[in-house]
Write a structure and sequence with these properties.
Blueprint (H helix, E strand, L loop, with lengths): L12 H26 L10 H55 L7 H24 L1 E2 L2 E2 L10 E6 L7 E6 L21 H54 L3 H35 L3
Antiparallel strand pairs: 1-2, 3-4
């Protein structure tokens, strides 16, 4: 009786399977190496297409939020600059009021006394004008009364999107705009009556400066709240994007170790399969 022995001499399916497994494991090793070296999970769009799209949107919002935080801090510094100058103007106005109160004392002062008081008064009024017209932030006039350079109400971008804005308002603050024009009629201390009139004018000016400082303080507080909110947004968005886009080192190292181990097993399987093929050839006397 004749027995047929079927041996695949031209095809070694075990070796081919091991080669394919080795190819897959090498791809896994290459991917995990790239992820570990770059710190990025999504080194290509094929890894997580929808996740990549979400991550790109998040990065755009994070970048916009970062810039909005810088903008908000700039706005806070702007308001503080204007407020510091108004604080100095308040001191000047208080000194001018003291001079006016003294000059109003007809009972004891001579004309020469009032002339000396008025000289200081006019000098301080001139300084009010100088300060108001020279107070700037990034070359922008803040409290000037020159029509072409008025600050007025302007828009501040305080968020990552087009609608995230709020207004900043700074009014003129000079001797002229406050109603204390140097050398003007009824605005000197040369008589008791004019001195008493000056007291009323200065009181009105102090009210205006105080009101503007209160407004600037409220604006600064609002900007501080905006900055706090933006920082919280940035932290949360960065954390969410990190979980989505950054490499999980523990998981990726585990995957890479698995890829190395399986590659070694695949190489061993290929060697074993090839050795079996050589055994068949030896049976045939080759």
């Amino acid at each position: 009786m004749q027995m047929a022995l079927g041996i695949g001499g031209t095809s070694n399916s075990t070796s081919l399977f091991a080669q394919n497994a080795l190819r897959i494991n090498n791809l896994l090793f290459q991917r995990t190496s790239a992820q570990l070296s770059s710190g990025m999970r999504m080194i290509s769009g094929a890894i997580d297409p929808s996740g990549l799209a979400i991550s790109m949107q998040m990065r755009s919002q994070i970048g916009g939020t970062d810039q909005a935080i810088y903008n908000t801090q700039d706005n806070i510094n702007l308001v503080r600059t204007a407020d510091a100058q108004l604080d100095t103007q308040g001191d000047i106005l208080n000194r001018m009021r003291d001079l006016a109160v003294r000059a109003g004392n007809d009972a004891t002062l001579t004309d020469s006394d009032r002339a000396r008081l008025d000289a200081e008064y006019q000098s301080l009024a001139t300084e009010l004008n100088r300060q108001g017209r020279s107070n700037t932030y990034n070359t922008k006039q803040l409290t000037t009364d020159v029509p072409a350079d008025l600050y007025g109400a302007q828009s501040a971008q305080v968020g990552a999107n087009s609608g995230d804005s709020m207004g900043v308002t700074i009014n003129p603050s000079t001797a002229d705009s406050l109603g204390i024009t140097a050398g003007g009629s009824g605005q000197n201390l040369l008589t008791g009556a004019s001195a008493r009139d000056a007291i009323d004018r200065i009181d009105t000016a102090i009210d205006q400066v105080s009101a503007q400082r209160a407004s600037l303080g409220a604006q600064e507080n609002r900007f501080n709240y905006v900055a706090n909110d933006l920082n919280v947004q940035r932290i949360n968005m960065t954390d969410a994007n990190s979980r989505l886009a950054d490499t999980n080192f523990a998981e990726t190292i585990s995957e890479q170790t698995r890829a190395i181990l399986l590659s070694k097993v695949s190489i061993a399987a290929m060697s074993q399969s090839n050795a079996q093929g050589f055994g068949v050839l030896s049976l045939l006397g080759k």
